[in-house]
Amino acid sequence: MPRTANRFAPMVAAFAVLAACGQTGGGCSGGCAQLGPIPGGRFTGTRLDTAAAARLSADGFTVINAYSPQLLDMIAPGGQLVVPLPCSIQSALLENLTIGDEGALYCTAESCGQLDGKCDTKDVAKPIVVNITSLVLAPKGPDLIEASLDITLATGKIMISSVSRNSALCLFSSPVKCSVDLDTARTTPLNNELKVNIRFIVDPRWDKVLSFEIPDIGGAKACGTAGALPKPACIDAADMLVASEGSCGFCTLANFNVVKTLIVDQLTKSLKDRLETALRGANCRKCGAGDTCPTSAVATSACVFPADGGSPDGGECIDTGTSKCVPSLIGVEGRMALGQALGGVVPQGSGLDLSIAAGGAATSSPAGLTVGFTGGAKEVAVADCVKPLAAPLPPALPLPDFDLDAPGPYDVGFSVSQQMLTEAFFHAQQSGALCLELGNEQMAQLDSALLGTLLPSLNLLTGKNVSVPLRVVIRPVTPPRATVGEGTLDPVTMKPKEPLIRFDWDGVEIDLYARLEERYVRLFTVSADVKLPIGLSLTGCSDVTPVIGDLTGAITNVKAKNSEILAEQLTALETLVPSLLTFAEPTLARGLQAFTVPEFGGWKIRLLASKGVGLISGTKSYNHLGIYAKLIPYNQSCVVMSPRLKVVPALLQGSRAMLKVEALDAAGPEYQYRVNGGFWSTWRPAGPDGLLEVNHPRLLLRAAHQVEVRMRDARRPEGISPVVAVTVAAP
Questions:
Q1: Structure confidence at residue 23 as a pLDDT band (50, 70, 90)
Q2: Model confidence, pTM
C-alpha cells in the first residue's frame, strides 16, 4: 500500500477505537499484555452489544482541530495527496470519449498510446497532486465524521480523444484530440473546499464489526451543475483551459462544458477511490498464518492476494458470498492462559478467550461521536473444580450517554458495561481461574505457627513447638456478579457513597488442610458470601489501578463444617474466614493488575475521573463503568511531579497497624496502602497527628507483614510518590 494510505488508515481507525487497547487484534498496555493468539484465529463465544464504548466529545474534536497540521500530516505527508486518474471511456456529446488517454510514461504520440482513443496496457494513470492546506473534523449525525479540506490543485494537461478515428464532431475527417488543464488558482477564490464524509457501518455478516465507507465527497461537483454547492465548495469550469491537440478545431470552438463536468466527475471518483483504498488498511482483515481466513455463523472467507502480486503478507480475507473484504477487528482479541499467568495457584489448564471489538453501534451528532464495542469471554474448557453452568443472556444495553453523567468538561470517555464485567468473571469461574490452592510453596508463612494462637488445638495435633505446612483451597461454587455504582467519595468521610464496582460472590467455600503424618488432612471447611468493593485509582497521567474499598461487612453468611478434628467452637473457625481469604488477595490482585490507557492517534491522555454511567431507574446501580479524560496536545509531554514520603512503623494491634507518615512536598496529602502484595486501598487522609490507620484482616495472623504506602497531593493527584515499604509485627 502507498505510504499515504499507511498513514491515513491508522488515523481513521483511531476515530473508531478512540484509544481502545489497540488495532486488528493487537495487545494493549498493562492488563492485556498476557493475551496470545486464539487457535483458529477467531473468537467463537457469544458477543454482547455495547460491552464497551468510547466517545470523542465536541471539546475533544476542538483539541484535535487545534493541531490540524499534525493531523493533516497523518493523512497526507507534506500536505499532499497523490490521486491517480486512470484512463476511462465515457459517453459525451454523442461520442465515446477516452478520458486520461495519456499513453506510456513520457509518451507524446499515438504509437506509444497517447490520444489513440484506447484504454489499454500502454496507458499509465495520470498522477494528480492534491495540495491540502487545512483540515477540520466534525461529527455529523447520525453516523458520520465530516472532514472539511481546503485544497488547491493544478492537473496539467489531461488528454482526451474520441474512440472513433473519424469523429462526427470533426466532420468524420479525424479524431477528437483535446486536453483539459485544471488549475484552481486561475480564478477567485483560489482554493476549493471539499467535505469528505466517513460513515461508520456495522457488518451483520461478521459479528457486527465496525467498518467504514465514504458515501460522498461534498464540494467536488462542477459549479452550476445539479447538486453543486456555491463557490468555493464547487469546481469552477473557468479554472479549466481547453486546448486542441490535433487537426480538428472542435475543442477550441465548442464550449465543451459537458466534457469539463465529465473531467470533474472522473477526478472525484479517483479521489474517492484513493481514499477508500487508504481505508482498506482499517477496513480489511489480513490473512492469518498459512493464508487462513475466518468464518462466521452466516459467512465464509478466503485469502486473496492483489492482482500485481503485492507483498508476500499482503493477502486480504474476502467474503466468498459478497466479494467484499472481511472487516478488520479494531480492538483486542486473544487467549489468556490464566493457569500460567497466576503462577500455578489455579489449575494449569485454565484459559480464557476474550474479545473487545469496535462494532454493534455508532452514533454521531454535533455534540460528539460515540462508538460501541461488542465483546465477550469464553472459557477454553470447563474446569473439573466447578459445576458446568449456562451463562445467562443479559438484555441489550443502549450506548452510554457520557455527557449526561460527565463530572465536568472532558475530551474523551471510555466505558465497559457491568454485563461485560459479569460475563468475564462468569467464564473465568468456569475456566477454573477462581479455584485457588495456596501452600507454603507460594507463601512461606503459611504454616501451623501462623494459626497457633487462634486455634490452640492445632498445636495438639502437630506437637508442641512443631510447625507443619498448611494449604488453603478456595472453591468458587458460584460465579461472581458485578454491579457498577456511582464510585464517588463522600466529602466528609472520604469513603465511597457506593463502590465503583461490587463483586458479589456467594457461597465461596474454603478448605484448610494441614500436613499431618506425611499427608494433608482437612481441618475444616467454611463457606461465606463475599461482597468485594473495588474502585479505580487514576495515577500518573494515564495509569489505572484497581483498588479495594472498605471491607467492613464484606463477608457475611459464614458457616463452618467438617471440623471434627479440631476442638474449637464453630464460631471461632468462622472468625478466621476474612484472614484466610486474604491469602488469595495477591493472586486476585495479579489478575486485576494496573493498566495504562494508550495514546489516541498521537495525543496523550490525562485521566480525570472514573464513575458510573447510565443510572438504572429505581436503583443506585449503573449500566456502565466510565472513565473520563482530557487530551494532551499533540507531541507535548504529560509532566508529573512526584512528592516524597516518609513512613515510620508502629506496633500491630489486632487487625490494625498505626503508621506514622510524613508528607514531603505535599500540602494536601492522601495515602494508599497494601498488605503483603494485595490490593491497594482507596485514597484516604491521615489523622491530625500524622497517623495512618492500616486495617486489614491479614494482620490478625501472627506473623511479620509487609505494608507498602504511597502518597499523592490531592491538589495534583496525578503525581504519586515512590512506594515506601515497612514491616509490622505483633509484639
A1: very low
A2: 0.85
